[in-house]
Amino acid sequence: MKMEFAMTIGALARAATVTVETIRFYQRRGLLGTPRKPAGGIRRYGEEDLARVRFIKTAQALGFRLDEVALFLKLDDGLHCADARVIAEQKLKDVRRRLSELQRIESTLAALVRECHTRRRRISCPLIASLQRV
User: Fold this and answer.
1) Pick the CATH number of 1-64 from 3.40.50.720, 1.10.10.10, 1.10.1660.10, 1.20.58.760
2) Which of 5, 17, 32, 108 could be bridged to 47 by S-S, CB 3.0 to 4.6 A?
3) How many CA atoms lie within 13 A of 45 on its CB side?
4) pLDDT truncated to tens, each residue of the chain (134 aa)?
């Protein structure tokens, strides 16, 4: 199904499932252009604008910061795939590090919760006591 691509900012926001303020924020950050405003008219956005907003949102969902997204947009000329890969490899390294930290936290919390279940009705809560020792 082909959409009509002469959208107002509100229609663009709805199509991209973001807010109008998000569109304006991306424009202020230089991630999305601002179409010229015809005399007495309203700015219109096209298919490329919608694709760009969706690209930004997808990259953010993968954990990329807006400065990294901006860099991807600059590298999108078909000649800089290796540079984009380096950015993605660094992000993957960061994600793996955070996963490791979260697994450590999960393990510690699980042990503390187990201890709470085994030491019920004591005056001192083992979980709170453990946090106070830190």
Assistant:
1) 1.10.1660.10
2) 5
3) 23
4) 444 568 999 999 999 999 999 999 999 999 999 998 888 888 999 999 999 999 999 999 999 999 999 999 998 877 888 999 999 999 999 999 999 999 999 998 898 888 887 766 666 777 787 777 76
Q: What ranges in the chain are assigned the alpha helix state H?
A: 9-16, 20-28, 47-61, 66-75, 81-118, 126-133
Amino acid letter, residue 127: L
CA nearest to 88, candidates 105, 102, 69: 69
Q: Where are the domains positioned within the chain?
A: 1-64, 77-134
**Beta partners for residue 25, in sequence order:** none
